[in-house]
Amino acid sequence: MGHGILLVEDEATLARNVQRYLERDGFELRIAATMRAGWRDFEEFRPDVVLLDLNLPDGSGLDLLARIRAADRQAKVIILTGHGSVQTAVEAMKSGAWDYLAKPIALGELKLLVDKALGQGRMEETLSYYRGRDARQGGLEAMLGASPAITDLKARIAGLLQAERAMAEGDAPPPVLIRGETGSGKELVARALHYDGRRAEAPFIEVNCATLPAQLVEGELFGHERGAFTDARERRIGLVEAAHGGTLFLDEIGELEPAVQAKLLKVLEDRTVRRLGAVRERRVDVRFVAATHRPLEALVKEGRFRADLYYRLSVVQLVVPPLRERAGDAAMLAAHFLALHGRRYGRPGLRLDAAALDLVARHPWPGNVRELRNAMEQAALAAGEARELGAAHVALAPAPGADLPSPGPTLRQMERDTLVQMLDRTGGNVSQAARLLGISRDTMRYRMAKHGLDAAAGLESA
Ligand SMILES: Nc1ncnc2c1ncn2[C@@H]1O[C@H](COP(=O)(O)OP(=O)(O)OP(=O)(O)O)[C@@H](O)[C@H]1O
Q1: Ligand 1 center to residue 188 CA distance, Å?
Q2: Are 247 and 286 in contact (CB under 8 A)?
Q3: How far is the C-alpha of 77 from the C-alpha of 64, rounded, in Å?
Q4: How many domains does the chain have?
Q5: Are 249 and 343 contained in the same domain?
Q6: Which of 399, 418, 451 is the last residue of a domain?
Q7: How much distance in Å is there from the Cα of 13 to the middle of ligand 1?
Q8: Residue 245 Rama label (left phi>0; alpha psi -120 to 50; beta)
Q9: Distance (Å) from CA 121 to ligand 1 centroid
Q10: Which protein residues touch ligand 1 with a CB less than 6 Å away?
Q11: Of 120, 149, 181, at which residue does a domain stop?
Q12: Are residue 271 and residue 248 in the same domain, yes or no?
């Protein structure tokens, strides 16, 4: 029997997508759109995992979290949080949530978290899951693109791997620092280094230093002995040890707390870890790969990142070019992602028409490949029965400096039209429409009120 999952989420489209995706993997899903329905379903259904949106129409998910925790300490609660509300998510973690995921939700990532929640305490299983998952999507061949910029990068990686193959067995390869804008493919580079290298059979462990709550970082990275602190009922090995023989990928390294930076430096220098509360140090053989989109040199100057750690980590630096500097790649990647999402949503054969392709080629892609992938997913969802998608299906935030509509009496009407159009496209879903427009739900409601629209009226006048 599949594990039961309760999804408390008022964004209908998102809920449906999560449901389809997880049901395909054999999970049993229930959806509740309000706090009240969520509680009722929780009592009736007794799920193993609850996916909880904090921003519900009839109250805060935090209250529901408290009730759930009081009723059942086994169920794992994963918080789904909007942009900019990471602080609230941390609050939720303090109140007993198991983990959180920021919106827009990447379904693959969500599935990984659910698997981890169900298998927590069974490190073996988690590791073999990581291996299985990664073996399918690692390697240089997963990095698509034919532009000179990406070809150069791939050649550098291949050269590095070749040099490493010539190293003596047991000689740890140098740390690598991957730089590049958000969404440009830094993680993909880290995977390629692992899965095309000598350590491919050993674990690839990934840590996002930005999303680990500060108070958990040390325990997560270095592990702890039983009784090391009040809640440490069991001994737990840390992620550094879990990566023994393989690769530890430290994403968003610029976000690491100074105290943890010092400890990490020690691991890099001595190649040993000491679990919290342990007397003994253990030797570890780990390849360190770190990534950041932040200017680390500036953080070093400001005293926020240790210079010695920076030099240790950056023996080899790889720079991932932004998508806008990869001539021709955007159109090719757009076709790739459109086909991928088309298959996932049961709409094969989707393609972009000339105007849409032109839009894709000219857009500056501040969110890089991730933005492109998400835009193609939204386009696939917005396509309806159409096979050939036009510029209107591809909802892109306007480029800075792009032609702006002339100000004047029509501006108000244009704003209204846009709101109506987005509400129409999302079947009246205010949150989804807000997301397409790149504004918050509150701003969306405010603007709708300004134009005397409600979701239903928006649909009528469209
Ligand atoms: N060259 C590429 N070919 C195919 N897919 C790509 C490519 N580059 C990136 N992607 C995809 O784009 C998404 C974002 O990439 P990735 O997570 O590696 O970016 P990142 O630079 O690590 O982002 P962040 O800085 O936000 O952590 C992923 O789904 C990844 O598989």
Answers
A1: 6
A2: yes
A3: 10
A4: 4
A5: no
A6: 399
A7: 24
A8: left
A9: 29
A10: 143-145, 180, 182-188, 251, 291, 293, 369-370, 373
A11: 120
A12: yes
Cα of 35 vs centre of ligand 1, distance in Å, is 35
pLDDT of 304 reads: 92
Residues 317 and 203 in one domain: yes
DSSP state of 227: T
**Residue 404 is assigned to a structural domain of this protein:** no
Which of the four pLDDT bands, split at 50, 70 and 90, describes residue 235?
A: low
Per-residue pLDDT tens digits for 260-315: 899 899 999 999 888 888 777 888 889 999 999 999 999 999 999 999 999 999 98
Task: Give the tokens for residue 104.
Answer: 């827009």
Domain containing 305 — which CATH number? 3.40.50.300
**Can you spell out the DSSP letters for 145-195?**
--SHHHHHHHHHHHHHHHHHHTSPTT-PPPPEEEE--TTSSHHHHHHHHHH
Whether residue 210 is found in the same domain as residue 349: no
Q: What is the mean pLDDT of residues 178-206?
A: 91
Answer yes or no: is 125 within a domain: no
Q: Mean pLDDT check: name the lowest of 9-23, 57-71, 251-265, 419-433.
A: 419-433
Q: In this structure, are residues 65 and 52 in contact, taking their beta carbons and an 8 Å threshold?
A: yes
Cβ-contact 156, 321 below 8 angstroms: no
φ, ψ for residue 272 (rounded to 5)?
Answer: -135, 155
- Mutation test residue for ligand 1: of 107, 188, 193, 204, the one with most atoms within 8 Å of CB: 188
Give yes or no: residues 170 and 71 share one domain: no
In ligand 1, the atom with minimum distance to the C-alpha of 144 is 3
Please tell me the predicted confidence (pLDDT) of residue 124.
39
Range of the domain at 70: 4-120
Whether 126 maps to a domain, the answer reads no
Residue nearest to atom 15 of ligand 1 (CA): 185
439 pLDDT higher than 60: yes
Instruction: Give me the mean pLDDT over the 61-82 stretch.
Output: 87
Shared domain for 257 and 140, answered yes or no, is yes
The atom number, within ligand 1, closest to the CA of 208 reads 27
Say if residue 219 is in the same domain as residue 307. yes
Structure-block tokens of residue 12? 């209908």
Q: Does 185 have pLDDT greater than 50?
A: yes
Q: Are residues 306 and 169 in the same domain?
A: yes
CB atoms within 10 A of CB 357: 18
* CATH number for position 8: 3.40.50.2300
CA of 97 to the centre of ligand 1 (A): 28
Note the pLDDT of residue 407: 41
Query: Looking at the predicted complex, does its ipTM rise above 0.95?
Result: yes
Whether 181 shows a pLDDT value over 80: the answer reads yes
- The pLDDT tens digits of the residues spanning 407-420 come to 444 556 667 777 88
**Does the residue 177 lie in any domain?**
yes
